[in-house]
Every structure is written in structure tokens, then in C-alpha cells.
Amino acid sequence: MRKIKIIFVSITALFFVAARTVFANGGGGTPENTTFTLSSPLKDIGGIPALINALITNIVLPLGVSVATIAIIYAGFLYVKAAGNENEVKKVHGIIWWTLVGTAVLLGASVIARLIEGTINQLRS
Q1: Where is the signal peptide (predicted)?
Q2: pLDDT of res. 32
Q3: What is the dihedral of CA 61, 67, 98, 56, to 10 degrees?
Q4: Cα 99–105–111 angle (5° rounding)?
Q5: How many whole angstroms separate alpha carbon 96 and alpha carbon 73?
Q6: Is the Cβ–Cβ distance between 91 and 38 less than 8 Å?
Q7: What is the CA radius of gyration of the chain?
Q8: What is the mean pLDDT of the chain?
Q9: Per residue in 58-89, pLDDT tens?
Q10: Please, is 75 exposed, middle or buried when counting C-beta atoms within 10 Å of its C-beta (0-12, 13-18, 19+)?
Q11: What is the pLDDT of residue 102?
Q12: In whole angstroms, how far apart are CA 79 and each of 69, 89, 91, 98, 102?
């Protein structure tokens, strides 16, 4: 326990000691350009349907595919770890099954979002 404390304190001290020195601009006076603009990250989004589609396409799908891949790899490790034990193999089959169902729902989400977007656009016309 004492070794762990010493290692933790040493690493923490290393982070504080290794920090670089920051020097402020000592020139004085006022800066030439003092304007600040905040641009909207949603300027390219045309409305709620496009926002939903962009969220699914740019955030949900990549994150979900990563999680699904990790879940399938984890299930593979559990399958190897089961080593023929029927109860463990049944658990692993359930994990693999629900991972594949979740992946299908995830991939189907973009199709559903496009269908909803098309329906909303038809209702607007």
C-alpha cells in the first residue's frame, strides 16, 4: 500500500514539475483586433429533419459501430473462456444475439431517419 502511495505521489509531482512555463505578452498597450464572433455550428443544417439525420449519421452510427465491435470481441473472449461449459456458452450466445440485434437496430436507424425525413418533407409540400 505504501508503494502505491509513493508511486501515485511521484507521478502527480512529475505532472506538476514537468509543466512548461507560460510567459504573458509584456508589450503593453491594447491589441489591434478585439472583435470576437461566434458562428453557429448548425449553419449547414436546414431544419429538424436534417438535424436528426446529421446526428444519427455523424454521431450515433460511428459510436454505435465502435461499441458493437467491442461487444462482439468481448463475446468472443467469453466464448473462448467458456471452454465448453454449456451454461456459459448459452450466456455467450445470448450476448452475441442481442449485440447483433442492437447492431441491426443501429444500422436501421439511419433508414428510419431518412423515411421520417422524407415523410415530413412530403407533408410540407
Answers
A1: 1-24
A2: 66
A3: -20
A4: 150
A5: 10
A6: no
A7: 26
A8: 81
A9: 888 889 999 999 999 999 999 999 888 999 99
A10: buried
A11: 92
A12: 15, 6, 9, 15, 19
